[in-house]
């Protein structure tokens, strides 16, 4: 057995030849090479445990050595598996225990102090050596499970499950758990259960005074009102669009589809900006009113109305995408059956088609609801006095208050709303789906919409679509005039200010104000996108194709992380990763990780949908033809999954570039991102630059989509195979 | 190479798909797993392939314990019901796939793949896409793809169920011919007893996750051990008869007014369940001679090669096939039914 040998050796090498702890300056300086034994900062795991008093590392390394011994013994397969399982499992337990138990100031908790006495030692965050040892132990554990016949006896599958599960635990579950802890702690980290109740019961959160007339409502109610309105509004609009696109002979369906892509590649607050250009204080409407009737300009757009409008524009396309599948999935045969049973078109629509779409409508509502409570860009740009949880959390973390406990409590509340909606939806809809796309080929024709419904849909949808286009138009023009509202002279100044490049004696200088954040964004998004896609598709492959213990739990965990709002993730990362054992606050790595685990659930979902259309026997054929699991994945599954890969890559990149809510907590002066930079400009009232920059981002993302599309290429399939099934014509 | 199952059980959650199965497939033979849909044939086959691992018991291939080995680690190939040809690869690439994965170089793999395609009569189709082939051709590509790996065991899961009746007969003859020519060890799954009888050296009949009976096609048809088998292997009429021993190797079976003498050494006197094959029933216009069973035709249908009758008698409603089509009997006619001894089987007391 070579794999256990290789992993034990790799782990031991990492324990001897790499610094165990994280280095301030990173690995690439090379300074650590000379201090591997002697320097307390640079020492390897072995050196730390022997020469620098970190005795608790020794048992971890010993279990790794035990793994090596087991790998070398000439044992029978299952026996070797059992021994390896014991050694690596023990190693993992010891690793986790020391990492969680011993921190910057000795024991991390009071009861450990009380139990074992003060510990006069400290450790910082895990570095390359520690991380590699952890990976080696996890790999050995998976191999051991496979040797004992787990995971179909396949070490690759076992490793993949471990990888996915461990990374979800580390980078989604653990940070969220930390919020919970933080919400109970006071400023010094002491555990105070009563504090949470205090924090959550605050007047500012729950006041209902806006209903009785005097004053404002609490942020919790604001968030809920807004989310309910947004969920209902986007669902209605999305349904109207979906009906028009599939059930009428409307001529501009293609345009409609493009309209739905735009908001996905648009940073979420661009719509808010455009709304300011139209309705803001110096916006077109106010100016017109002042000019024609002498009406004082108002701040009308700032507040609930503005945020609601912006969210409607921003999230209707998402609802459309959810609903179009649902509307198309309603089996025409059922509608035809209804018509042959004496139901006219309206009765068919209202008693058959609509009820069949109900689970889909609930889904769309849930998506709108969660998008709304997770939205940070629009409320901060347009909210004015109308505070919502996401902005409130932001001010608690970065504002003058600097109250982490309060931020955690609010994040907990936000998370509760999201998960509440998620579970409520599952309770109501269950896993029922009436969508009936089967491989059987439904021969019926979709029934055209009854006139009443068609007219209603068109009256809602078309003006809305026109208005969306108009807003984009304004946003585009807004970047090309001097000062919107005062001086409409065409100019390229804003672009020049953002993206200037100067020729000097020293060569090119990227002197534009935006370059720094632009390149950081592109770089980090480009690193994150393939990792997001890979992890997402791997998880999807496991969930769809493999049967293993805990499969249902894993699927549930990925679904759940989809419902966690970005703001919560962002705050959670701040709390979880600025103390050992994982100390990465302020680095680029934390931003990349946030991108990956924020966007992975969508990749999983898309991958699962695509994969369940591919006949399972294709994988099995490959397995019985000597293709091991990884080869099957590479030669059979991935080539058939090209559209899903493109989707996951594009989505991973685009979301990384456009996301705001999660990363506003993680950016630093060194690693500033495009969206956070733009938001700061908007808060400072510098609309011209902000708009110019946003337009540039939109163009960049269009280009990226086209390039990825081109690189990955079309799926090569026989011409007679409309569905991917084992070659049956 | 031989395949051996020792008390193999497969559970899915609380449901038991295979409930304790033991058998041996001798090297170089074709053994069929036969049974109604849902009886656990596919699960059994997939356990041989290593696509599912058993919950209990051991599996041996060529004497080696492979119970916990994954599909790739076993020297086994499989032909799928849906053929499972990779739609993004040409015919040649499909057949090369396994060879390439087991580490052969491209040219060498292509040579062997061409040879394999020739063996199944598909030379010249190398560059086609699977979707450009007919069902029978796709089937042959799937066979070639499995064959070129020279696996120690070749598995077929209902390989013919997607073909029309004529092609089914042709393909099953081809598979049998190939198996005998190359001396392959084959495990073949089907729910069609005619297909099973036509191709097999031995048949293992399964029912509800257990083995009902195993043996050669002739054994199973002529000496079914249980009522299930009598019903499942060919048509048969279940009836209650009374047994009386006439000699150490001979008993008389009484069904209503008919009495038949058949060879039997084991059955004791008394009531027994008897199966009567439809082709063993002769129908004459009434009145017949003594020892025949009077009855009345309930239904009569003409099928070209033979007549089918449903006859109400004192021993129950009997279904009969009758090769005499020139003088058909009409529904309602009174008839005398006589039974040929070779088609009357005592299944269980
Ligand atoms: N993956 C599975 N999960 C749960 N039950 C299964 C699974 N595969 C098969 N079964 C059950 O096991 C039984 C036997 O199935 P199978 O072996 O496919 O039958 P056959 O091939 O004889 O038609 C059936 O009752 C089936 O429902
Ligand atoms: Mg089957």
From TrEMBL, chain A:
Gene3D superfamilies: MetI-like. The chain crosses the membrane at residues 55-75, 82-104, 124-147, 156-177, 224-246, 258-280, 300-326, 404-424, 459-481, 524-544, 556-576, 632-654, 660-680, 687-712. GO terms for cellular component: plasma membrane. InterPro entries: MetI-like (IPR000515), MetI-like_sf (IPR035906). Keywords: Cell membrane, Membrane, Transmembrane, Transmembrane helix, Transport. Residues 220-425, 518-708 form the ABC transmembrane type-1 domain. It is a multi-pass membrane protein. The keyword Transcription does not apply. One of its GO terms (biological process) is transmembrane transport. SUPFAM superfamilies: MetI-like. It is found in: Cell membrane. It holds the Pfam family BPD_transp_1. PANTHER family: FERRIC TRANSPORT SYSTEM PERMEASE PROTEIN FBPB 1-RELATED, MOLYBDENUM TRANSPORT SYSTEM PERMEASE PROTEIN MODB. Belongs to the binding-protein-dependent transport system permease family. This is Iron ABC transporter permease.
UniProtKB/TrEMBL annotation, chain B:
This is Fe(3+) ions import ATP-binding protein FbpC 1. GO terms for molecular function: ATP binding; ATP hydrolysis activity; transmembrane transporter activity. InterPro entries: AAA+_ATPase (IPR003593), ABC_SmlMolc_Importer (IPR050093), ABC_transporter-like_ATP-bd (IPR003439), ABC_transporter-like_CS (IPR017871), Mo/tungstate-bd_C_term_dom (IPR008995), P-loop_NTPase (IPR027417), Transp-assoc_OB_typ2 (IPR013611). Gene3D superfamilies: 2.40.50.100, P-loop containing nucleotide triphosphate hydrolases (3.40.50.300). One of its GO terms (cellular component) is ATP-binding cassette (ABC) transporter complex. Belongs to the ABC transporter superfamily. Pfam families: ABC_tran, TOBE_2. GO terms for biological process: quaternary ammonium group transport. Residues 3-233 form the ABC transporter domain.
């Amino acid at each position: 057995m070579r794999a256990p040998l290789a992993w034990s050796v790799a782990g031991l090498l990492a324990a001897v030849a790499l610094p165990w702890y994280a280095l301030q300056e990173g690995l690439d300086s090379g300074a650590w090479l000379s201090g591997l034994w002697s320097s307390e900062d640079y020492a390897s795991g072995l050196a730390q445990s022997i020469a620098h008093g970190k005795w608790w590392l020794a048992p971890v390394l010993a279990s790794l050595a035990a793994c090596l011994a087991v790998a070398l013994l000439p044992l029978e397969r299952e026996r070797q598996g059992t021994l390896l399982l014991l050694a690596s499992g023990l190693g993992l337990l010891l690793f986790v225990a020391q990492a969680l138990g011993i921190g910057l100031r000795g024991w991390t908790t009071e009861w450990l102090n009380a139990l074992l006495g003060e510990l006069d030692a400290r450790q910082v965050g895990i570095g390359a050596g520690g991380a590699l040892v952890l990976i080696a132990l996890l790999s050995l554990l998976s191999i051991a499970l496979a040797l004992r016949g787990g995971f179909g006896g396949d070490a690759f599958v076992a490793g993949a499950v471990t990888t996915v599960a461990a990374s979800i635990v580390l980078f989604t579950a653990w940070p969220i758990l930390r919020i919970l802890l933080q919400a109970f702690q006071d400023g010094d980290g002491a555990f105070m259960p009563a504090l949470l109740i205090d924090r959550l019961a605050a007047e500012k959160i729950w006041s209902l005074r806006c209903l009785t007339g005097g004053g404002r409502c609490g942020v919790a109610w604001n968030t809920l009102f807004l989310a309910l309105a947004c969920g209902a509004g986007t669902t209605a609009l999305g349904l109207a669009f979906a009906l028009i696109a599939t059930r009428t002979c409307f001529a501009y369906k293609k345009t409609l589809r493009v309209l739905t892509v735009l908001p996905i590649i648009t940073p979420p607050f661009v719509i808010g900006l455009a709304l300011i250009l139209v309705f803001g204080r110096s916006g077109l409407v106010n100016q017109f009113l002042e000019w024609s009737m002498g009406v004082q300009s108002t701040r009308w757009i700032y507040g609930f109305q503005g945020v609601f409008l912006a969210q409607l524009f921003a999230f209707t396309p998402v609802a459309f995408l959810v609903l179009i599948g649902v509307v198309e999935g309603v089996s025409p045969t059922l509608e035809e059956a209804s018509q042959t049973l004496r139901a006219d078109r309206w009765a068919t629509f209202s008693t058959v088609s609509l009820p069949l779409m109900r689970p889909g409508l609930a889904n769309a509502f849930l998506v709108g609801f969660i998008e709304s409570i997770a939205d940070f860009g629009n409320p901060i740009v347009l909210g004015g006095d109308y505070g919502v949880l996401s902005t409130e959390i932001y001010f608690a973390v970065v504002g003058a208050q600097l109250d982490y406990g309060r931020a955690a409590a609010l994040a907990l509340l936000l998370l509760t709303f999201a998960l509440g909606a998620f579970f409520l939806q599952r309770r109501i809809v269950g896993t029922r789906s009436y969508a009936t796309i089967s491989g059987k080929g439904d021969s019926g024709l979709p029934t055209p919409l009854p006139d009443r419904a068609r007219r209603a849909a068109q009256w809602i949808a078309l003006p809305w679509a026109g208005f969306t286009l108009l807003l984009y138009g304004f946003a585009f023009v807004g970047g090309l005039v001097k000062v919107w509202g005062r001086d409409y002279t065409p100019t390229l100044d804003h672009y020049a200010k953002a993206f200037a490049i100067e020729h000097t004696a020293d060569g090119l200088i990227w002197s534009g104000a935006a370059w720094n954040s632009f390149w950081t964004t592109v770089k980090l998004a480009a690193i994150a996108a393939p990792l997001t896609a890979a992890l997402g598709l791997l998880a999807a492959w496991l969930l769809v194709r493999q049967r293993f213990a805990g499969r249902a739990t894993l699927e549930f965990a990925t679904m759940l992380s989809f419902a966690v709002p970005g703001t919560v993730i962002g705050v959670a990362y701040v709390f979880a990763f600025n103390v050992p054992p994982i100390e990465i606050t302020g680095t680029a790595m934390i931003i990349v990780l946030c991108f990956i685990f924020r966007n992975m659930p969508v990749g999983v979902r898309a991958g699962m949908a695509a994969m369940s259309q591919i006949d399972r026997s294709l994988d099995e054929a490959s397995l019985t033809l000597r293709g091991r699991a990884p080869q099957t994945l590479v030669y059979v599954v991935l080539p058939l999954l090209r559209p899903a890969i493109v989707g996951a890559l594009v989505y991973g990149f685009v979301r990384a570039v456009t996301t705001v809510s999660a990363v506003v907590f993680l950016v630093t002066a060194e690693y500033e991102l495009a969206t956070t930079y733009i938001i700061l400009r908007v808060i400072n009232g510098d609309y011209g630059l902000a708009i110019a920059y946003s337009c540039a981002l939109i163009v960049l993302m269009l280009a990226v989509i086209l390039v990825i599309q081109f690189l990955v290429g079309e799926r090569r399939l026989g011409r007679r195979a409309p569905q991917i099934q084992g070659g049956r014509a | 190479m031989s395949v051996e199952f020792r008390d193999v059980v497969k559970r899915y959650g609380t449901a038991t798909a295979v409930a304790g199965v033991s058998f041996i497939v001798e090297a170089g033979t074709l053994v069929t797993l036969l049974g109604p849909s849902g009886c656990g044939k596919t699960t059994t086959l997939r356990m041989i392939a290593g696509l599912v691992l058993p919950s209990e018991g051991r599996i041996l291939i060529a004497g080696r314990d492979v119970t916990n080995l994954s599909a790739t680690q076993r020297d086994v190939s499989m032909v799928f019901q849906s053929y499972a040809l990779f739609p993004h690869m040409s015919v040649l690439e499909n057949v090369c796939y396994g060879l390439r994965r087991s580490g052969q170089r491209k040219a060498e793999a292509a040579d062997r793949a061409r040879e394999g395609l020739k063996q199944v009569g598909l030379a010249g189709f190398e560059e086609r896409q699977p979707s450009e082939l007919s069902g029978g051709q796709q089937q042959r590509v799937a066979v070639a793809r499995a064959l070129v790996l020279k696996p120690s065991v070749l598995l077929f899961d209902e390989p013919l169920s997607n073909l029309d009746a004529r092609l089914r007969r042709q393909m099953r003859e081809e598979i049998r011919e190939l198996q005998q020519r190359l001396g392959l060890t084959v495990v073949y799954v089907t729910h069609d007893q005619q297909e099973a009888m036509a191709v097999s050296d031995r048949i293992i009949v399964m029912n509800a996750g257990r083995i009902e009976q195993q043996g050669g096609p002739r054994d199973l048809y002529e000496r079914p051990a249980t009522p299930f088998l009598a019903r499942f292997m060919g048509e048969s009429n279940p009836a209650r008869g009374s047994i009386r021993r006439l000699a150490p190797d001979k008993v008389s079976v009484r069904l209503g007014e008919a009495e038949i003498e058949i060879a039997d050494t084991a059955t004791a006197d008394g009531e027994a369940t008897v199966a009567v094959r439809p082709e063993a029933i002769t129908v004459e216009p009434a009145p017949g001679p003594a020892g025949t069973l009077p009855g009345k035709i309930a239904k009569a249908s003409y099928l070209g090669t033979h007549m089918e009758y449903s006859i109400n008698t004192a021993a129950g409603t009997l279904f009969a096939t009758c090769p005499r089509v020139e003088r058909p009997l009409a529904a309602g006619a009174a008839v005398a039914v006589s039974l040929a001894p070779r088609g009357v089987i005592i299944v269980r007391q």
